[in-house]
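Morning F.,

Quick status update on the modeling queue. The single chain you submitted on Monday has been processed. Sequence for confirmation:
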Amino acid sequence: MTRTAYFASCAAMPEGDGDDAIVLPALADLGFTVHWAAWDDPAAGFAEADLVVLRATWDYPDRREEFLGWCESVPSLANPAPVVRWNTDKAYLVELHDTGVPTVPSELIEPGERAKWPKQPFVVKPSVGAGSHGVAKFAAGGLAADEHLRGLHEDGRTALVQPFQSSVDTQGEIAAVFLGGIYSHAFTKAVMFGSGPDASGLYLEERLAAAVPAPEVRAVAEDALDAACSLLGILRAELLYARVDLIRGDDGRPLILEMELTEPTLGFRYADAGAPLRFASAVRQQLA
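Structure tokens below.
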């Protein structure tokens, strides 16, 4: 039986960054016809599709409410709209931390609120954002940090403040990828501070490479995914994909930096040959 799937993207990157191309033959083998379309394209057949998969909707931060409204209008969306609403605001990091999952400490500063800057180097980023836009590192509080915060607030954005973890400069991040709730593969992401934008202007360039997470890193990623699903009231299998980004804290322990459940690059170019097959099976599972 032939089934139709749409990979939802955006006008600036209509077929994503190329990472998903490798999964198309695996989906075709299972009887899926896949179409790419920008999420805001009125001519796309999202309503008639067997499944719509969020893949490269990277222009949503400036139109989040419009994007969430569209998500809620799609009959069969992966990941589901309630997950997208929760995950597209980094306030979820505070919730994860409160469950006891080792997470980089995060403080939210709403528009109109003043900051009490950490006494160590720190990072300020918009709580709603993608591709590291609006992310800045500061050695200490002062005029530069105040101006950056003011700029975010003037745009109506809540700021997220996190202590800078020095391992970002030396080890980068490790991204653990789960498909259908099951661990699939991992890859490393090089530090992005000071990087230039890609051709689309939607995200900053980064260097990726295949990786095998240490046991304690994998364990924290698994615990974080369990905690997120508990907060959302869903089973892990209800998530077509999840990417858990971790770094080492200054004491060497793994910490959650972000959890990507909406439209992450999944690093198929850096995974083993079985990863596209696992993704295709996870897509099929969503329709079971």
